[in-house]
Structures are given as C-alpha cells and as structure tokens.
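Lab notebook, bench 4. Continuing the backlog of folding jobs that were queued last week. Each job is logged with the same field layout so the records can be merged later without manual cleanup. Today's entry covers ATP-binding cassette domain-containing protein, a 502-residue chain. Filled in by technician R.K.

JOB TYPE: sequence-to-structure
TARGET: ATP-binding cassette domain-containing protein
LENGTH: 502
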Amino acid sequence: MIQIVKQFGSVVANDEVNFRAKAGEIHALLGENGAGKSTMMCMLSGVYRPTHGEIHLHGEKVRIRSPKDAMRLGIGMVFQNFRLVQTLTATENIVLGEASSFWRGPRWLARKSEEIEAISKHFGLPFPVDRPIWQLSVGEQQRVEIVKTLYRGADFIILDEPTSVLTPGEVEQLFETLNRMKQEGKTVIMTTHKLKEVMFASDHISVMRKGKMIATMAKSETSERDLAQLMVGQESNNDRTVVREKPAGSPMLVVSGLNVYADHGRKVLDGLHFDVKAGEIVGIAGVSGNGQKELAEVLTGLRTWKDGDIRFDGNPLRNGSVRGAIEQGIAHVPENRMKSGLAGSLGAVDNLLFKSYRSPERSRFGLLRTENNRKWSQKLVALFDVKTPGIDAPVRYLSGGNQQKLLLAREVDLEPKLMVAMHPTQGLDVGATAGVHDLIEDLRNKGRSVLLISEDLDEVLQLSDRIMVMYGGRIVGNIPREEANREYIGMLMAGSVEEDAG
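JOB STATUS: finished
OUTPUT FIELD FOLLOWS
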C-alpha cells in the first residue's frame, strides 16, 4: 500500500501511509484506537476506497472497489464487528453470495453444512453449523467469520482483534491455524492490542499512530515495552496492582437457584447460587458459551428466568424488565456494543440520553432540554476522552475504542449500584484499557459492585477481588484473588476439575 490517504470530510484517517506485507508471514498491525489501522484494512478489503494512493498485489497495481473485488483477488477480512445475518444459520451465512449458492438440489445445503463442519473441526473452531447466528455466543460468531474466510479460499487474510473473545487454549489453537496458513504461503495481517500475542505469533510488526505509519520491524528487533511506547508515544506500564481502599460490604446482589433456558430451548444456567458484595469486583471466567451471556441478560432485564430468586439491594429484581433494572441501579456494558449498546446512525448526544432522558435534568414536561443535554454530552465526551468529529456525528464512524468509551461514559454517569460488564476492554488499546480498568476500580472503591465477565483471563486476574468460573451453565469455582492460580482456573474453565463453588 503506497502513500495511502483516506479522508472522511475534514478528518484525515490515513496520512500518506506506506505498508508492505510478504507472502507466507504473519504481520501484526498495532496502534491506539483511532490510529487508522482498521481504515487501512477496510481499504484493502474493499469496504472503503482510498482518497489517494495505490495498492499493489503480487507486484501488480490493483483497484479494489468492493469486498467482491477483494475476494476475487484472494483477500478476506474478519471484522471486529461481525458481518453476519442474524436470522440465517451459520452455514447460510458462510455460503451467502458464492457462485454456487443458487438452488442445487434437495441435499445441497446439507452437503455444504457437512463441508463447513469439517473445515471448522479441522481448524479447531467448532460451532453449531445449523443454528441461527442470533442464538450463538460472540465467540461462536467470531469462529463463523474466520471459517467463512477459510471456506472461500482467501490467500490474504486480515484478522481484526481475532483473540478478543477466546480463552488461552483457543488462542493457542488459533495461532496453530495461522502458522499452518503461513506455511501454505498465505499472508496473515493481525490487528491486536495484546502485545504478548504479537511477540508470540508475528513475524513482522507495523505500528501506527494518529493516522501515520510510525515504524515497521521484525519481531526480533523489538520488545513489548518498545512497542507500547511506539503506540502511545510514551512509556506504558501494564503492571497493575489491585488496591482496595476499604473492605467489601454486605451483599448487593444475591442469586439463588437460578435456572435459565436459551432461545433454542437448551438449559444454559443450572441452579446458580452466588452473591456480589458492595465494594467488590467479582470476575467470571469461562469459555465463551457457558452461560455468561445469558447471566448478564437476566441481570439487566434482557432475558426472563424460569426458576430461582434474585435479590438486589434487598429487594426482588424485576423479571425481564430492562427499565426496572435501570431504575434499580444496574448498569450494563454489553458484549456487542453496536448490537446492544449503541445506535450507530445516531450521534453522541442521543446515545448518551438513552437511559436518562426521563430524568428532570434531561427533560421537562415530556420535552428534551436540548441545550442542557448538548452541554452535558460535550462534558462527558471530554471527560472520557472520546475522539469524535462532533457530538452529532453518527457513532458508527468512530473507532471501536471510542465507541466503547462513549458507552462507558453513559453507564458510569448513571452512578450505578451494580455494573455488569461483559468484555469491557474488547478491542481497546493499551491506554484505553488502562482507563477502563481505572473506571472499574473507581466504582469498586466508591462502594459499588462490579460483575466483570471476560474471557481474557489476564484481565480477570488483574482486576477481580474474587473469581468465579463458569462451565456448562454452573459455577464450578469460587476463588479469592489471593488464592487464584492460572493453571487451576484454566482446568476449571475446561471442565477438567470441579471444586465446591459454595
């Protein structure tokens, strides 16, 4: 990619960027949120067109005007925000748009399902091929996207934050897959903020900052500290120590005998018993698809429960009432910010108002207080360092990290009694991740409760006062932070051992 410039109105997302990747290598692309990495890859995959500059593939100049052009050239991209049709099955999503997808006989789709299932098993990326996408967890949906690219035979594969929702074991399996691709001569570009994974998996590393390419080097020529400094323009220290300002209080959330069934009828939560105390961060570790998503939905009113009792701040929690959860003081950071947390076509003001528009500060006599709301929104955008062309710009144009910061600004401003946070730092860079961690710890230190649900074991170990492990819809481990052992937790996550969770 030669002298690439991309402008969105007056905003320059890429400023004369040069980028080169070789056949048969894994190339990591690093940078803070908003640095221009995803924009570069979107031009390579045909989603955007460059304002200026050239793209060369195998030594020849190419014009990539659409994702179809990119796929024809052997370029495939797995996006951080998945491009899947929610009502179609995994198989239907994967074959959608291919030349042979027209009706080919009564067994055509069944044969395709068998082919796709074989590919998914071969690469260690299992998922139910005949289940609708909306019934799959985020981790399973990501596997569908990766298998879709592999199924279509791409030689040039772009992975945007590919390990965000994978366990350590799944990450190792993915890297084995990437190495097989590399050995077959495929080119893999991986955008990620996990420096350990970059140093483990990549051959070359490029760093972007503020729309410019800062440096490209071989892995042997750099270190995690050097990369972090290049990304943020200063030294970054990832070592954090959990500091409790005061002991935890009485239980804020008490769950007893909770049974929940998923949309497809399978029992996903089986007799859950646990509590979360005031002034405590409880981390939930587990492989994606073991009931974490359904637990978060139950607590935030998005899903009803069949049996059991949930008491919050001494009162029964309303069953299946989102408004009830908000009014009782429960905030929510969903696992998919653009599906469940933000409206991409609306600006910052409207997105910030979603949960507070009924309050006297935000409206009067049923009419929004427009001027007050705009000043309030500008204050929050500045306070949480959300980089946006303006508070009226559609949030779908913001980088993933800035979208997440905007969502957190809304939830934290509510001063919740309980924060239910699913993958709160997914797709965030080093600096933004540290900022989110500070917010979570600040809530705890103010006597609020936090239920942190994450497949990033490092994050769970780093932040939690107590760690619960979920497997098969049950809590199989309940471990104080000072007794936590990575190997033992990994065994619990895999279902290899079970302790008394009480």
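OBSERVATION: The chain has a mean pLDDT of 87.
SIGNED: R.K.
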